[in-house]
Amino acid sequence: MSRPAPLDARRGPRDQVAEPVGVLHVITHLDQGGAQENTLLTVAGLDRDRYRVDLLAGPGELEERAAAAADRLLVVPSFRRALVSPSDLRVAATLWRLAGGYQVVHTHGSKAGVLGRVVARLRGVPAVVHTVHGFPVHDRMGRVRRRLLLALERAAARCADRIVCVCDANAREALDLRIARAEQLRVVVSGVPAQQVRSGSGERVLRELGVPPGAPVVGTITRLMEQKAPLDFVAAARRVVEAADDAHVLLVGDGPLRAEVAHAAAGVPRLHLLGFRSDVPDLLAAMDVVAFSSLWEGLGRALTEAVLVGKPVVATAVNGVPDLVVDGETGWLTRAGHPEELADRILRVLALPDRGASMGAAGAVRVAGRYDVEEMVDGLDAVYQDALRARGRRQR
Prior knowledge:
Layout: E1 21-27, H1 34-45, E2 51-57, H2 63-69, E3 72-75, H3 88-99, E4 104-108, H4 110-122, E5 127-132, H5 143-157, E6 162-165, H6 168-176, E7 185-187, H7 194-197, H8 203-209, E8 217-221, H9 230-243, E9 248-252, H10 258-265, E10 271-275, H11 280-286, E11 289-292, H12 301-308, E12 313-316, E13 331-334, H13 339-350, H14 357-367, H15 373-395
Parallel strand pairs: 1-2, 1-4, 2-3, 4-5, 5-6, 6-7, 8-9, 8-11, 9-10, 11-12, 12-13
Helix pairs in contact: 1-2, 3-4, 4-5, 8-11, 9-10, 9-13
C-alpha cells in the first residue's frame, strides 16, 4: 500500500531511512464522544517519521476532522453501533481486505474492538492493540445481555497483544471482569490539550446567557445518553435552583435523549440547555462547580478537563472517576442514580466562602502533567513498540 501524500507542514517531504510502521486505527463511528476525541488526538499526534497512520470508522459528524488527522481515512457506511447487525459481515470483509497491510491494528470501543481484534489476529497482523475507553457492561443491564457482551469481550481479548486502559481503576476492573490478562494490560491515561483547555475566559458566556455578575454557576458537559444519566442531572439542577435562588445551571451537550431532557427541564428556572458547543474552555471558565451524573464511565473526558482547569467537581463514584476526584478534598463523590445526593454536594460546595476554588486548585495540582496529549501519544508509541518486540521474540 503506497503512503498517502502528507496533509500538513509537519508531514512534509523527508528522507526516510526505513519505511514507517503502518498503523490502522479502527473505531465504530465518528460522532462526538470522548473515545472519538482520544482516537483523533492519537492519530494526529503519532510521529510521522516513524508511523503511517490510517483510520477506519463508521460515519459521523467528525469526518472532516478525522480526514485532517489521518494519513488516510476510510469511512465504512455499514459500520453500525448495534450489538449484532447483518452489516457486520461487510465490515469484517473490509477489515480483512485492509488489515494485512499494517504492522499495528489499534481498535477502540466495544463493537470495533471485537470485530477489529478478531480479524486482525486472523490476518496475522504483528501487533494487535485495543483501548478500553469504557466498559461494555454495567450493573443496570440485563443478565443475558451482560453475559453475551462479556463472552464477546473475553473472546476478543485472546486476539490482542496489548489492552490499554485509560486509568488505573479501569485496569483493575478489566482484570476483575476477565476481559484482559495482567501481561496484556497497559495504562495510558486519556490525554487532553491541556493548554488549550486552560485558555478559556467565561465572561462572554455569562453575558450571552444573561447571568448576573457574581451569581453562582453550576454546569456539566456531557452526552445526552443513558450512560451519562442527564435526567438525573436535571433533577439535581431543579433542587439546586430551588435552594439557591440566584444560581444558574448550564447543561452542555447533545444526544439521543435530547427530547426527554428538554421535557424534564421545562419549567426549571435558570437552567440553560446549550446543546453541543465547541467553546468548552470558555464554558468551563464560566462555571464555579462542574457536576457529572454518569451511571458508568471509562474516565470521562469533560471530567478530566474540569479537573485540569481547577474546578471543584461533584460526580458519581463510578469506574475511573475516583482516580480524578478525591472525595472531600478536590470535590465530592456520590452514588450513581441519586440526584438528591448530587444536588446536596453541589450546594455544599457553593456554600463555601470561595465556592470550592481551593478544592479545584488542589485537584489541578494533583493531576498536573499526567493528562497531556503528548504524554498519551508517547505512551501509545511505547505500547506499539513493546507489542512489536514481543511478537518478534515469539516468532524467533
